[in-house]
Amino acid sequence: MSSDGSIRVPAILEKKRDGHALTKSEIDFLIAGYTRGEVPDYQMAAFAMAVYFRGMTDGETTDLTRAMLYSGVVLDLSDLRGPKVDKHSTGGVGDKTSLILAPLVAACGAYVPMISGRALAHSGGTLDKLESIPGFRVGLSLDEFRATLHKHRVSFIGQTKEIAPADKKLYALRDVTATVPCLPLITASIMGKKLSEGIDALILDVKTGDGAFMQRYEDSIALAERMVAIGKGMGKRVAAVITDMNEPTGLMIGNSLEIEESIQALRGEGPKDLVDLSVELSAWMLVLTGLQPALEAGRTKVREALASGAGLEIFKRVIEAQGGDPRVCDDTNRLPHAAKRREIRADEKGFLAQARCRAIGEASMLLGAGRDTVADVVDPGVGIVLGRKVGDAVDRGDVLATLHYNDEARLDRALIRLNGAFVVSQDRTVRPPLVLKVIE
After folding, report:
1. In this predicted structure, what is the pLDDT of residue 2?
2. How confident is the model at residue 113 (pLDDT cuts 50, 70, 90)?
3. Residue 263 in contact with residue 334, Cβ under 8 Å?
4. Residue 372 CB: number of other CB atoms within 10 A?
5. Which tens digits make up the pLDDT trace of 133-143?
6. CA neighbor of 256 nearest in space, from 123, 95, 382, 404
7. Which end of the chain offers a freer environment for a tag, N or C, measured as fewer CB atoms within 10 Å?
8. pLDDT at residue 221 in the model
9. For residue 374, what pLDDT is reported?
10. Cα–Cα distance between 293 and 241 in angstroms, integer?
11. pLDDT of residue 144 exceeding 80
């Protein structure tokens, strides 16, 4: 604080740099100034790095979340006559469950207003995946968002200029300043954005392991507990599941590839781990909204929507409503695909012991599926398709992964990153359960 009593940004940065707790007024001043463009990116990057190294108290994290939330409008969806629920994942590799569970939960009677993000570091972004569908618009106005929700019970959009604008700016900045895996920043980003949606309930998929931003189990638990506490403190029904991210979810990594695999899952043909996790998260959403009395009943209801094709039909309608080509649901060849392929093959017989998740995610990003800088353009068709999952038997020469690429220089960098990513052992590795813990 300056001599005249006013708050100054350099003083806030110095205070946090030195490990002191910021006041609510200081946090509000910083976030409001950043939202208005009065605090430049370089000062906000310094703030993010200071928080990364010094952390925040629970009180500071709550104040930061509220500042993010109220940097824009909070939607009022009370005119929708039914429960409103959403899901958020802390990010992983091949993590495409939002695309599957949103139409399934909508088919089961809930409204799913889904405000999603873009690729962040080595993890993919729901918006980038959806934009790989020809014509699909994620930049809906709030009126268009409401209209789609009214008609189809689900809509996917990005943050508009009205919704949590501070988070929209800081989210992109964190991606390119190595400040993504930071508990207070993750908490404020997720909860500030999700609580702005006008939802009644929220399920949090908190990843842990090699491909997660919170790699240590205890850090994932701490993040989940903090987010659940903040959500409940604001009157929402919230639960978190801690899920394993030591190998990619499903087999496909990359934007159009993950749309393709999501469509397969909605047809009932997807990989077991992807379908099972989507069903589990959907069941939790139905329980939190009160549409189903218990998890087992929720699972049954969701699998009925899967078997009947009701979820796929809603997904198709939403694609059309948001300007996309719904024919991709019947013919995935209409999605963009990379021109070239390169296979990685096993050089010995045994069992796949490791598919190092972070390396695979970073290799996909290097192919062009993610961003190194805010200005980078994502290539929708590139990515990686796994040939085996951990624990599967492998013969010498079997395809462990196929790289879909367009640029030879990018391929070379991706292959270097994948060196040693696939480990074959003579002993079969037992996969951990997908859901490791539930926090309510």
Report:
1. 46
2. very high
3. no
4. 11
5. 999 999 999 99
6. 382
7. C
8. 96
9. 61
10. 18
11. yes
Catalytic positions, written as ranges: 88, 167, 174, 189, 193
CA distance 210 to 285: 27
Residue from 87, 25, 94 nearest 59 by CA: 25
The answer to whether 93 and 134 are in contact (CB under 8 A) is no
> Which residue has tokens 């694609």?
319
Instruction: Give Cα 41 distance to the centre of its chain.
Output: 24
Q: What are the tens digits of pLDDT across the range 223-282?
A: 999 999 999 988 899 999 999 999 999 999 999 999 999 999 999 999 999 999 999 999
pLDDT at residue number 51: 97
CB of 166 closer than 8 Å to CB of 68: yes
The CA distance from 22 to 11, in Å, is: 10
- pLDDT over threshold 70, residue 108: yes
CA 190 to chain centre: 10
**For 369-389, what is each residue's pLDDT tens digit?**
987 766 778 999 999 999 999
Residue with tokens 């394993």: 244
Which pLDDT band, with edges at 50, 70 and 90, does 5 fall under? low
